[in-house]
Automatic annotation (TrEMBL):
Family matches, as CDD domains: CSP_CDS
UniProt cross-references to InterPro entries, sorted A to Z: 4pyrrol_Methylase_sf, 4pyrrole_Mease_sub2, CSP_DNA-bd, NA-bd_OB-fold
CSD domain location: 1-77
Protein name: CSD domain-containing protein
Organism superkingdom: Bacteria
GO molecular function, one term: nucleic acid binding
Amino acid sequence: MAIPRVKWLNSQNGFGFIQLADGDADVFVHVNAIERAVRALAAKHPLAQNRLDAPVHVTTGRKLAEGFPDNAASVMVLLDRDHSFTRLGEADLDIIWGAYLGTKEEILVAGRLAEVMSDIVAIREETLRKHGRIADSYLLCRSETLNARA
């Protein structure tokens, strides 16, 4: 999987654009939103952020569909309307998924990817039917990453 690069970043305001390595359209990203999503997911589940001993790779669902990055222990996924995590179901991964983080509608699911992915898909589809939209993100971690630090 090719690695995206920061095309432009306003570090004072915490936003910019990431250029995808395959030449697709640039992705607007708000750094604070990504940091908040990772912190919110970690705070709601039994996962200390210091268990992640390597950088967190941030990607989109479309890029994740190509496969879990070989050199990453943890991947934060945004913009995944196609449930790309379902293509990784046999991998030894844990998922920490959340929608509407920090709101009264907050929904959280965590566990072994193979065991909870069908629940997440059903919850996403029901939420889309109910609200017409969904704001979700998730953190995928190689199981040995979490187990080694527990």
